[in-house]
Write a sequence for this structure.
């Protein structure tokens, strides 16, 4: 009897606007902070992508130019509260991709710099790079968990009404 009430209580807490707005702002700030060094120094970021040894050579430079802007725009969308569902979807996909790519390289013993927040750390030794990779995976899993309250809030929200201009132009209003 009490279990459904407890679940409903947790759902109410995790989808409460006080929490979800703060989570949305934190996620946005994290992705804005991660994007800026990559936008400033695309060659270093391209080198880091190359070191993952996952993408074909022809995709590396274009990825290093596009991915930071996707991160920045998604982060800004969350901070500004626009296109939340699309931004949250993109951020979730990026986090899962990052976790998989880093895990593949950790399993290979490939000592990469993740390129997450600082592209200037490219010259560290193998030992200096392998140790933090486990932490990076845990950190990204934690950030991914931050998406849960935001997704829960999105599911609980009623659909946004259509823009006023569309309502005025609809044939049913004539």
């Amino acid at each position: 009897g009490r279990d459904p009430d407890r679940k409903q209580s947790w759902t109410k807490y995790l989808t409460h606007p006080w929490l979800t707005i703060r989570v949305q702002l934190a996620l946005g700030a994290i992705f804005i902070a991660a994007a800026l060094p990559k936008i400033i120094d695309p060659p270093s970021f391209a080198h880091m992508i190359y070191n993952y040894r996952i993408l074909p050579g022809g995709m590396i430079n274009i990825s290093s130019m596009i991915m930071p802007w996707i991160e920045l725009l998604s982060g800004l969308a969350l901070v500004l509260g626009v296109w939340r569902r699309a931004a949250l979807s993109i951020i979730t996909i990026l986090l899962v991709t990052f976790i998989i790519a880093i895990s593949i390289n950790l399993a290979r013993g490939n000592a990469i710099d993740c390129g997450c927040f600082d592209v200037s750390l490219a010259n560290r030794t193998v030992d200096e790079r392998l140790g933090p990779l486990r932490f990076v995976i845990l950190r990204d899993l934690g950030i991914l968990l931050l998406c849960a309250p935001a997704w829960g809030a999105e599911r609980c929200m009623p659909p946004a009404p259509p823009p006023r201009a569309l309502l005025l132009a609809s044939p049913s209003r004539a």
